[in-house]
Target: Dihydrodipicolinate synthase family protein
Amino acid sequence: MTPYYYNYSFEELYNYYQEITNAAQIPMLIYYLPQLAGKKVSVEEFQKLLEIPNVIGSKYGSTDLFTFERLMAKFPDKVFMFAHDEALALGLTLGAKGFIGSTYNVNAKATREIITAFNQNDKEKSC
Model:
């Protein structure tokens, strides 16, 4: 998780993730939640983060869906997990490879129904 209590520079965030991945030596997602970090990361900066060994993608929590689409298009080999429970159908439409949410465990049945409806091209039910 990004250290979001302080306003770190991109270089400090990059070093933070690099140190963690070097120490852990396991696949890792960058947790991107600019609403709490107080700072947006550009696509170019994201590229630098995604080039860190063991970084396999991002848990994307920003509401900037244009950037989300650009990242998925530019880095198709990376995993982008959509992190907006309330917009699950939109994440499916945008092509997210997975979802990490805070309500899916208590709303598992509804979540499954939305995903199933989407996969069956039932737009009315999935939205």
